Amino acid sequence: MISRLEQFASDNYSGICPEALEYMITANQGSAPAYGNDEWTQKATDYFRELFEIDCEVFFVFNGTAANSLSLAALCQSYHSVICHETSHIETDECGAPEFASNGSKLLLAKGKNGKLTPESIEAIVTKRNDIHYPKSKVISITQSTELGTIYSPEELVEIKEVAKKYNLKIHMDGARFANAVAAINKSPSEISWKSGVDVLCFCGTKNGMALGETIIFFHKELAEDFAYRCKQAGQLASKMRFISAPWLGLLETGAWLRNAQHANQCAEYLENKLLNIVGVEIMFPREANAVFVKLPQQVIQSLQAKHWQFYTFIGVGGVRFMCSWNTTQSRMDALLSDIQEFMTIAHRVSAR
Which residues contact 242 (CB under 8 A, 6 or more apart)? Predict the structure, then answer.
C-alpha cells in the first residue's frame, strides 16, 4: 500500500477531479483521430472561445513550462527581452526554458510589493537603456495569481496595459492559478485577460483538477501564426490530444474549473483565519487566492516535517507556503492546525526558559 502524503505543498499534488476523470474515461471509448483532429479538442477549443467571449486561437500542451516558454518565444526574437517580477516562475523555476525556447530572449527582473509588477517598475526597465548593445524590451510577463498568492485587480492590469501601449510591448499572462483569480475577485475571464490588455494567456489545468495539460490562448490570432509548428518542434503536440482536451471540456462544461478554484480559495481563507488565532504565527503576504504564506520558528517547521506534513519553505528562513487545492478537506486543515498549535506552544515554552 502506497502511503498518503499529508500535504499542503502544492495544488500540483492533488489527484484528478471527478469531472475531468469522467470525461477522460468517456473519451477513451473507441478510437478518435490523432493530433487534435478529434471532436473533443474541437469542442474544448470552441468552449474557450465562449468562455472568453472572443474568437481566439487555442493550443493544448503538456505542462506550464512549455506553455510559458513557447508563448513567450512566439512574442519575442532572440534579441528581445521579457520584463517579469523577480519572483516569477519563468525566472525562478523553469530552468532557463523561456530563454532556450526563444533562442536567447533575456529576462529582465523588476521588484514589486507582494509579487506584483507596477507601471513604474516596468517603465524603469524599459527606459533604462535603448541603445543597440542592450536587448530591446518586447514583452511584459505577469502572473495571475502571483507567486506570492496575490492578485492583480482589473484596474492594475489596465495600468500595465497603458505602459505596454506606450512602449509597444505585448503582455503575457502566466495563468498557473488563473481560475483562482477569477474566483477570488468575481470577474469574468475576459475582464482580467484580453479586456485588460493581455495578448496571450497560459491557462493551467493541472492545478485545477486535471492530470496534465495547459491551454495557451492567443487573443489576437496574428500572434499565433505558425504556432502549431512551434508546438510540434518542441515535442508538445500530443498524438492522443483528446486525453488533454476532454478533461478540459469536463472542467468547462460542468463549471468544475470555477468550483474547484472557489473551494481551494475558501479553504485557504479558513486556514488563514485559524492561523491568525495561533500566537506567534505571522502572515507574510495578503491571502487573496489559495495560498497562505506564514513565518514559523525553524523548530516548528522541522517538527511538522517530522510528522510528514509536506509544504514549501522557499520564501527565506522561516517562510512557509501552505497551498490548498480542489480536494483539500477541513479535517486535513484542522489536523495541520492542531499540530501547528501544539508545536508553537512547545516552542514558546522552550524560548521562555
Answer: 27, 32, 38, 40, 41
User: Any idea which fold 6-12+257-352 has?
Assistant: Aspartate Aminotransferase, domain 1 (3.90.1150)
CA dist 307 and 135 (Å) reads 49
Please give the Cα distance from 86 to 156 (Å, whole number): 18
Residue 8, Cβ neighbours under 10 Å: how many? Answer: 27
Beta strands in 65-150 (DSSP E): 80-85, 106-110, 136-143
Q: Which pLDDT score is estimated for 351? A: 73
- Helix (H) or strand (E) holding 201, with range, is strand 200-204
Quick one: average pLDDT of 3-30? 91
Distance CA(85)–CA(122), nearest Å, equals 9
What tens digit of pLDDT does each residue of 233-255 get? 999 999 999 999 999 999 999 99
DSSP E strands in 211-312: the ranges are 214-218, 282-283, 291-295, 309-310
Query: Contact 235/20 with Cβ under 8 angstroms?
Result: no
pLDDT digits (tens, 9 = 90+) for 49-87: 999 999 999 999 999 999 999 999 999 999 999 999 999
- Strand order of the sheet with strand 170-175? 57-61, 214-218, 200-204, 170-175, 136-143, 80-85, 106-110
Single-letter amino acid, residue 282? E
- The DSSP 8-state label assigned to residue 105 in this structure reads P
Q: Which residues on neighbouring strands pair with residue 33, listed in sequence order?
A: none
pLDDT tens, residue by residue, 260-309: 999 999 999 999 999 999 999 999 999 999 999 999 999 999 999 999 99
Is it true that the peptide bond before 88 is cis, omega within 30 degrees of 0? no
The dotted CATH code for 17-255 is: 3.40.640.10
Output the CA–CA distances (angstroms, integers) from residue 234 to 66, 75, 228, in the order listed: 8, 16, 10
Sorted by where each begins, the domain ranges of the chain are 6-12+257-352, 17-255
Alpha carbon of 175 to those of 38, 89, 182: distances in Å?
26, 11, 10
